[in-house]
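Lesson 9: reading folded outputs for more than one chain in a single document. The general rule is that every protein is listed as its sequence immediately followed by its C-alpha cells, and records are never interleaved. Here is the first one.
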Amino acid sequence: MPFLFSGLFWGVMLVLFGASMILRAVFNLDIPVFRIIFALVIIYFGVKLLVGRQAFKGDGNFSMFRSSDVTMSESGGEYNVIFGQSNIDLSDIDISEKSKKVEVNVVFGSGNLLIDPTKPMKLNISTVFADCKLPHRNINFFGDSNYKTPSFVEGENYLMLNIDVVFGNVIVVEKGQE
C-alpha cells in the first residue's frame, strides 16, 4: 500500500477537498467528496467479494493489498492491481503468430511495466486522478494518450496494451533502460 502514503494520493485528496470547500462557499453546494470516494471503494470491494475474488489474496492476474512480480508470456489477458504494487514484465509475449491484447488496470496502486521496444506495441493509456510515465512523456491527473514502440508497423502483428489508471501511478519502462 505504498500509494496511500504517496504525494500523488494526498495531493489529489487535498484538491478534491479544496474544490468541495469552494463549491460549498460560493454555490452553497455541499458535496461530500471523501464519503463518495470511500463508498465507491467499499462497493467495489463488495462486488469483487461477491463474484469470488478474495479481498486479501491474489492470483496470477489479480493483486490486492500486496506486492507482486509477474512475467506475462502467454496469450495476454488482463491484470488488475488494487491497493498494491506490481512489477509486470511484458517483454516476453510472443506475437509471431497473431496480434495479442493485454489490459492492465491500476486502482489506488502502483504498477511498473517492462516492455521490449523491439516488439511492435501500441499502448492506449487512460488516467483519472493518476500519473503515467511513458518512455518519452508523462500523463498526469486526467487524460487519454496513445504510444507506439519504434518497431510498430500498421498491418503487422503487434501487442495492444490498454492501461487504465485510477488514483494510482504506472511507469512504463523499455527493456534495457531499467
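And here is the second record, again sequence then C-alpha cells.
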Amino acid sequence: MINKCLFPVAGYGTRFLPATKSMPKEMLPIVNKPLVQYGVEEAVEAGLTDIGFVTGRGKRPIVDHFDINYELEKEIEGSGKEALLRNVSNLIENNNFSFTRQVHMKGLGHAIHCGQNLMGDNPFAVVLADDLCIADEGDIGVLAQMVKIFDQFRCSIVAIQEVPDEDVHKYGIIAGDDLGNGLFRVHDMVEKPSQDNAPSNLAIIGRYILSPDIFAKIGHTSAGVNGEIQITDALLKQAKEGCVIAYKFRGKRFDCGSIDGFVEATNYVYENIYKKGKE
C-alpha cells in the first residue's frame, strides 16, 4: 500500500512577481480554491492520506491553510459561508499533514531529498502543485491512475504527456519501450534538452510515484542543469539499474507555473466545474 504524498513547495514563483513577493505561488487561486488544495484533493482521492510539505521562507500561508482558523470559523458560524470551508475542513480532519524546510534552493531533486524524514522508508507520491491536473468526466484522477500502475509494477512511475517539439527544452524528456496502454519502460531521460538532442517529445509533468531507494540515488547525484540536483538524473539511475515506468495519463493538465497556463486553467475550471456546481 502507498499512502504518502510529498509536496515540494519551497520555490519562489518568480514568473508571477510581484504577486508572489509575499504570497506563495501554490496559494494562487484557480477561481476560489488555491492550487495546492487541488493537488491535496487529488492525492486524497488516490488514498494518500499522509501529506508532507517541503516548504521554505515565505510559505507560512500554506501551513496555515491546512490548519484550523478559529477566529474565522467563529465569525461565519451559522451562516451560509460555513459551506465554503467544508472541503478544506474535511481535508484537515481526515488526513495527516507534516512540514519540513528546504533551507537552500538546490532543485527539485534536493527538495525531494529534504522530505526523506517525512516519507521514511516507504514508496510515496510527489505532486508539483503548479501542474494542475483535472480528471476527465467520470474518470479517476492522475494520481489514482498511477497508484494502480504502481501496484502492478512496484517501481517508480512518472506521468508524461506529448509536448510540441519547440517546448521540449522546458521539461525532462524520456525515451522508452512502448508497453501499450500508455506505458513505457524508460531507458533514457534528459533534463531540458535542446530540440536537436531530445530523445522524444514525451515530457515528464509534476506527478511521480517514487520507490524509497530514490533518496540514496539523489544523495549520490551531482548538480546538473542550472547547478541544481535534478530528480531526472536520480530516476535515470533507477531506470538503468532496475525499472522506471512512464505513464501517458488520462485527463487534462495545465501548467499553472506560467501566466498563460494559469489563465487557461482558471477559465476551464470556471466554465466546466465552478459554474456547473452552481447549477
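What the second record shows: The first strand starts at residue 4 and ends at 8.
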